[in-house]
């Protein structure tokens, strides 16, 4: 296939074809996922939990995400690479730019940042300087201490309204993609309908423009607690390659997420 770019995502979005994203941290998995046809490889700060065994994403550094981004970029040929900006690396537009530039130099095509309207200026600052930005709304794990745990977000009508407004503000500031995590399916649908760029859901219902899962969750190798939105795609599959293909099929045909994965 040709390289997956922003234009590719727009084309998929316009023809209502679901977009597939998986987290990826090394060259071998990047090569496999790319060959299977996953559109977006996410170097998530989840690497702190699934690769490093830490109990949150908060200690992950920009150097660590850059290192894993380089590993993924070496194994990848055509997928789009999105890298997470870790906690504490985008508190101001200027520091965000310096840190995002490190990830772009490491091979990322886009960076992802967690949060709402407080990031308006930062999103504008990055996108005006040629760094594509993916927003991340809902359950943003870097805010775990402020949330008081990993809890479903946007459950009241006020909280839901705020998330929709945040998405619109960041889209207007230049964000070209959004991850929506652990929100009611009805809100996932509303945010997706309010925007003119794709949304990628993880526990955000079946009406998002695409879906993402953490690799170690969908292969059932993460030893920790499993979130409701996770499905074990290894089940019934003879190989990791077949599990990844089963994930792509299930996202594309709309059978994942099913009601039991949703809020
Ligand atoms: O870090 C990560 O893996 C993520 C996804 C869960 C969206 O941000
Ligand atoms: Na993340």
TrEMBL record:
<dbReference type="InterPro" id="IPR015813">
    <property type="entry name" value="Pyrv/PenolPyrv_kinase-like_dom"/>
</dbReference>
<dbReference type="GO" id="GO:0000287">
    <property type="term" value="F:magnesium ion binding"/>
</dbReference>
<dbReference type="InterPro" id="IPR040442">
    <property type="entry name" value="Pyrv_kinase-like_dom_sf"/>
</dbReference>
<keyword id="KW-0566">Pantothenate biosynthesis</keyword>
<comment type="function">
    <text>Catalyzes the reversible reaction in which hydroxymethyl group from 5,10-methylenetetrahydrofolate is transferred onto alpha-ketoisovalerate to form ketopantoate.</text>
</comment>
<feature type="binding site">
    <location>
        <position position="114"/>
    </location>
    <ligand>
        <name>Mg(2+)</name>
    </ligand>
</feature>
<comment type="similarity">
    <text>Belongs to the PanB family.</text>
</comment>
<protein>
    <recommendedName>
        <fullName>3-methyl-2-oxobutanoate hydroxymethyltransferase</fullName>
        <ecNumber>2.1.2.11</ecNumber>
    </recommendedName>
</protein>
<feature type="binding site">
    <location>
        <position position="84"/>
    </location>
    <ligand>
        <name>3-methyl-2-oxobutanoate</name>
    </ligand>
</feature>
<keyword id="KW-0479">Metal-binding</keyword>
<comment type="subunit">
    <text>Homodecamer; pentamer of dimers.</text>
</comment>
<keyword id="KW-0460">Magnesium</keyword>
<dbReference type="GO" id="GO:0003864">
    <property type="term" value="F:3-methyl-2-oxobutanoate hydroxymethyltransferase activity"/>
</dbReference>
<dbReference type="Pfam" id="PF02548">
    <property type="entry name" value="Pantoate_transf"/>
</dbReference>
<keyword id="KW-0963">Cytoplasm</keyword>
<feature type="binding site">
    <location>
        <position position="112"/>
    </location>
    <ligand>
        <name>3-methyl-2-oxobutanoate</name>
    </ligand>
</feature>
<feature type="binding site">
    <location>
        <begin position="45"/>
        <end position="46"/>
    </location>
    <ligand>
        <name>3-methyl-2-oxobutanoate</name>
    </ligand>
</feature>
<dbReference type="InterPro" id="IPR003700">
    <property type="entry name" value="Pantoate_hydroxy_MeTrfase"/>
</dbReference>
<comment type="pathway">
    <text>Cofactor biosynthesis; (R)-pantothenate biosynthesis; (R)-pantoate from 3-methyl-2-oxobutanoate: step 1/2.</text>
</comment>
<feature type="binding site">
    <location>
        <position position="45"/>
    </location>
    <ligand>
        <name>Mg(2+)</name>
    </ligand>
</feature>
<feature type="binding site">
    <location>
        <position position="84"/>
    </location>
    <ligand>
        <name>Mg(2+)</name>
    </ligand>
</feature>
<dbReference type="GO" id="GO:0005737">
    <property type="term" value="C:cytoplasm"/>
</dbReference>
<dbReference type="GO" id="GO:0015940">
    <property type="term" value="P:pantothenate biosynthetic process"/>
</dbReference>
<feature type="active site" description="Proton acceptor">
    <location>
        <position position="181"/>
    </location>
</feature>
<keyword id="KW-0808">Transferase</keyword>
């Amino acid at each position: 296939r040709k390289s997956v770019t922003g234009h590719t995502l727009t084309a998929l979005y316009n023809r209502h074809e679901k977009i597939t994203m998986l987290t990826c941290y090394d060259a071998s998995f990047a090569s496999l996922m790319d060959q299977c046809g996953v559109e977006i490889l996410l170097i998530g700060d989840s690497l702190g939990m699934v690769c490093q065994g830490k109990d949150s994403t908060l200690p992950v550094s920009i150097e660590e995400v850059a290192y894993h981004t380089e590993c993924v970029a070496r194994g990848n040929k055509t997928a789009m690479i999105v890298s997470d900006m870790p906690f504490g690396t985008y508190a101001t537009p200027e520091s965000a730019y310096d840190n995002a530039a490190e990830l772009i130099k490491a091979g990322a095509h886009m960076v992802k940042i967690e949060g709402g309207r407080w990031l308006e200026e930062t999103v504008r600052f990055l996108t005006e300087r040629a760094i594509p930005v993916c927003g991340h709304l809902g359950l943003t794990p870097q805010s775990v201490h402020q949330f008081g745990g990993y809890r479903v977000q946007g459950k009241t009508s006020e909280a839901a309204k705020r998330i929709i407004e945040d998405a619109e503000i960041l889209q207007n500031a230049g964000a070209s993609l959004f991850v929506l995590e652990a929100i009611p399916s009805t809100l996932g649908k509303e945010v997706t309908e309010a925007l003119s760029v794709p949304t990628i859901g993880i526990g955000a219902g079946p009406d998002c423009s695409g879906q993402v899962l953490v690799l170690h969750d969908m292969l059932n190798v993460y030893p920790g607690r499993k979130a409701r939105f996770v499905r074990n795609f290894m089940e019934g599959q003879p190989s990791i390659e077949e599990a990844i293909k089963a994930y792509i099929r299930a996202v594309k045909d709309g059978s994942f997420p099913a009601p039991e994965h949703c809020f």
